[in-house]
Amino acid sequence: MITGKPLPPVTEVTPPDTQRLDELIAQWDTNCPPFYKGLLEAGSATSRFVYDKATMIYSVKGGRELTHDEVKKVYGETMTKIGVR
What we know:
By secondary structure, the protein is an alpha+beta fold. The protein has helices spanning 18-31, 68-82, and strands spanning 49-52, 57-60. A two-stranded antiparallel ribbon has the order 1-2. The longest helix has 15 residues, at 68-82.
């Protein structure tokens, strides 16, 4: 049973600026397992990963697809290590 009032609607969401994104990417690359370095920059010239927006699947360029569970696990562990989560 749900009690209490609902949360107010979200009226404004501001995305992080470029500097903050760069900081998060650097923290990710420093703290993630070595295999996943570059995952947050999937699709860029320097990353070995690609992201398919239609299927929402990450894969290694010319290689295997990463499972949703695999990405979810490494994301959770790394963000906890960084202290963002």
